[in-house]
Amino acid sequence: MCTRVFWNDNPIAKVTSRCMDWEVSDEPVLWFYPRGIERSGGSQPDAAAWRSLYSSVGLSMWNIGTSDGMNERGLAAHALFLDDIKPPTGTDAPTIVIAMWVQYVLDHFATVAEVLEHLDDVQLIAPPIRGQYMGAHLALEDPSGDSAIIEPIDGELVVHHGAEYTVMANSPAFDEQLTNLSRYAPFGGDLTPPGDITSLDRFVRASYFRHYLPEPANITETVAGVFRITQNAAVPPGAPYDDGGVYPTWWHAASDVTNRMYYFWSTHSPSAIWVDLAAIADGTELLALNPRQGELVGDATAAFEKSELLYG
């Protein structure tokens, strides 16, 4: 159900890859949002309203929210499934539905530290999505190499902040993932990497292979390196979890926060595409692209088409 890996200690570029695992396709659309977009945090009466400060590229899920993206300042955000969340309540802050969390962050902030300074500006709420409960936690990174994991647990936003937090998967909570990781070599224990598709095993495996990534010679090797890690953590179609549920990997994305390049690779295509955010950051038109088109290969920046705002 999704894995995120941030490679922030190589000499070429700070790059993240994540995969999207779910029982059905989230029907991703790739968007370019210019500065100045009027947004809301949902249809509830106390929803937050704002105007975007930064342009961004991002992937929508079912055209109801943004699951992944990067803004013109190089801040990237990734929402991954987390079970049993309980966001803070009872404040006077306006609310945002959890499907708008990523876009809210990308619209407002330039760095990880800035996001963390403003955590209390809004309240998260988690209404059903397409009739189904979907909790989430958020991974962030920026061009400095800074990273943070934010989890809405037990009425608090639990934050793990630091460049060392480079891997995220799903449940259990992040501190339990770190405790489990310490049982494995070279992270304090002597166990060898596990091979199951569970979140715990994917977290260990991604951490292990990220640890041993060789120094890249260029940006191509850097992006390929993180893609290879999330490929290793990907779930093939038909592979069941212990409860019998099947949540295959539908796509991989990569955010080069150093060079403002955003990559997408559908698991139904042999080829990746990418968008040069730096080249279009000053654009004033809202643009969209179906990234699942099989004929798309390589630089897809020019393939964007004018569109209308469909959510938020």
Task: Give structural notes.
With 312 residues, the protein is α+β, with helices and mostly antiparallel strands. It has a single domain (3-306), classed as Penicillin V Acylase, Chain A. Helix content is 17%, strand content 29%. The protein has a nine-stranded antiparallel β-sheet with strand order 13-12-11-8-7-6-3-18-20, with helices on one face. The protein has a seven-stranded mixed β-sheet with strand order 14-1-2-15-16-17-19. The longest helix has 15 residues, at 219-233. The protein starts with a strand and ends in a 6-residue tail after the last strand.
Overall tally of domains: 1
The portion of residues assigned to helices is 10-25%
Mean pLDDT across residues: 96
Q: Count the E strands.
A: 20
Uncertain runs: none
Protein traits:
alpha+beta; 312 residues; 6 helices; 20 strands
Secondary-structure map with pairings?
Layout: E1 3-7, E2 15-21, E3 29-33, E4 38-40, E5 49-51, E6 56-60, E7 66-71, E8 76-81, E9 95-97, H1 101-108, H2 112-117, E10 123-125, E11 136-141, E12 147-153, E13 156-161, E14 167-168, H3 174-181, H4 199-211, H5 219-233, E15 249-256, E16 261-266, E17 273-276, H6 277-280, E18 287-289, E19 298-299, E20 305-306
Helix pairs in contact: 4-5
